[in-house]
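FAQ: What does a ligand-bound record look like?

Like this one, built around protoporphyrin IX containing FE:
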Amino acid sequence: MTEQTIEPTLHSNQTGTLNFEPLGNREFLLDPYPYFEKMRKEAPVYRHEGTLIPLVSVFSHESVKRVYEDWENFSSVNPHMKQGKRVFGSLLKMDPPQHSRLREIIGPMFLPGFIRQQEPMVRAEAKRVISQIKNQTHLEVVEDLAGVMTVGVICNLTGIPSQDHQLIRDWTLDGAKIEGNIYFSKTYDDKAIGKMAAVGGRLMGYYENHVDSLIKQPGDDLISKLSQSDLTRIELIDFTQLLVGAGNETTAGLITNVIRVLLQHPDVLEQVIADQSILPTVIEELVRFWPPVRGGYRHAVNELELEGVKINPGDTVWVWGASASRDENLNEDADKFILDRKRRQHIAFAKGVHTCIGNALARMETRCILEEFFSSIKSLKTSETPAEPLSSMTINGLASLPVCVEWK
Ligand code: HEM
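The answer part, i.e. the structure of the complex:
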């Protein structure tokens, strides 16, 4: 994969305004940054036309941060959902004070001391993954390296037995491919909605059985520990689902994106192969430069204005966090991958009450697998088989990244 300039295929519609259509746009899904740059310059807050649900996209750091931080105006509770209906990933889809209660129970589990305690387990998982692929000269990074690693770690943490890891991986990947896409749809797609419900139903059924068996017979995992807290059975099931969903494709995307960006920066790639001690800095810059989450959403509660665009109650507001982290007002030379930045700012783990609780774990996991990988290889090159995009509005990753490896 070489660096190239892509001219985004944004065009004007009949009224002369800019048309931003990310759904199913291969070029955007592979590299959204030329689009983000144009949108930040020309329409940092943009109202989509013709979507089933009124939708506004937000690209600038100023407005992304505002939406994330202002939960009273930009709620995580979906007003289109029936009251009292159970929603997957409920912590993520709640506002204070309900959200605060759960976060206070769960948050302390992810403090640095806990993360440090997990490192031997994570390291062992990384070694296992590398031993399975070692000597394979052709690798598919997403499936063979990143995906198996992150599903292994999150399943170990939540007590899911190893025979089910692949099943969980397939289901969460199915979820990631469709999560959020519905907000960009212009037609009611029965098939897509049915697929989403089927994936959700299968996962929920699995987690219900899993949590019930841990309540009966607790193990040494996080969910067994939480079963001793004030969480109800339903809250425990929802949290298991959220944790596995939130911790899997995101971190797999981070691992994949490090490799993808290093292939575009051969000088840094050579340094990393020679000395893995620079990996923490590489990961920090990567999280800013090509974070694995491109966007998320909130629901507008009140009428207000964002950078001159009127927001109506009931609008879905799509926050393109990956665009915000490349905002020229936030970082100098924001479009360049620079390891020794004086000041590095990003919004990759969101802001406000829903700031990611797994960010330290994600960084540690990524460092462990990449240390094991880069210390085992002599060289890494792109394959002739091109990378394939992931058709997701939320995950800023790839469906596949084939590479050629020379092992030590
Ligand atoms: C590089 C990897 C990761 C990235 C980029 C990431 C990013 C994010 C973002 C942007 C949010 C906020 C979403 C929103 O407000 O709409 C979030 C929330 C969350 N993340 Fe992560 N995440 C990552 C890894 C993880 C991991 C490894 C875990 C757990 C094992 C995790 C658990 C969570 C949870 C539970 C929330 C919800 C927090 C709340 O609602 O209070 N994440 N993450």
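Follow-up question: can I read anything off the structure? Yes, for example: The chain has 14 helices and 14 strands.
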